[in-house]
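Sanity check

After download, print the first record. It should look like this:
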Amino acid sequence: MQPARPTLRTLREDLKSALPSARKPLDELDHPLLQKARELFGDEKRGHERIRAVDDEILFKVKVQRWRGAVWTDQDLDLPWLVAAGQREDGSSDDFYAALETDAQAARARYNAGHRQTLAGRTYVGHLLPTKDDHDRYQLEAGTRLVRRLASAIRQLTRGSLHDGHEHATDFATFRLGVLVRAEDGHETYVAVRITGSVPDDLTAVVLRCVPGCEPTAWYPEYALPSRSLLPAEQAWSTLMDPKAAAELLDEE
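Expected structure tokens:
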């Protein structure tokens, strides 16, 4: 399951927080209630306490310190959303959930008053669930998540190749990425990056920028790797790696 994240409405209205840039995924925000939600819903073996007062959707309780919240899971994306939040008042243990029930009952009454097809049950929380803006923000963050995954994978592949001189590769959703490093004592350190599959030019540039110890503008297209020619679906680039950066990469272990 993916990390829990707040809806935009919850972030602004309930948590009173500003919306950060898309470079900061909402599932990484530093808030005690969000941290607790990520903890609870990050372990599939943990049970969750349902909010029984809400009957039109399945919502679960999140509690930490004086904060209370309601989490709804998008089953298609396997993604938990914090859809409502508030603080417990002194002398009361369930005031947030009681208020949530009252608001949901009022929302159901308003909905039924304005629609010919009325709702069954006692509550309506559809207005709290993620909207198109929430899903647009989630997709906007996809670039950040991919760049982070690329950077981490490339460091691991580069380190592995530095150890044995062989190409190390891994698969992404639409392409396969390989890194080959050849380092000899007293000689320059050669590094080649291979991509199998179709990727846009801007993603290729991101991949090359992520290789440690290499100048982003010093890559040159290759038409063969040291041990073989390229296949029709492959493209490759090579450059020289700073030996100091290579040594530091190995020292990270």
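If your output differs, re-run the checksum step. Summary of this record's structure: The chain has a mean pLDDT of 91.
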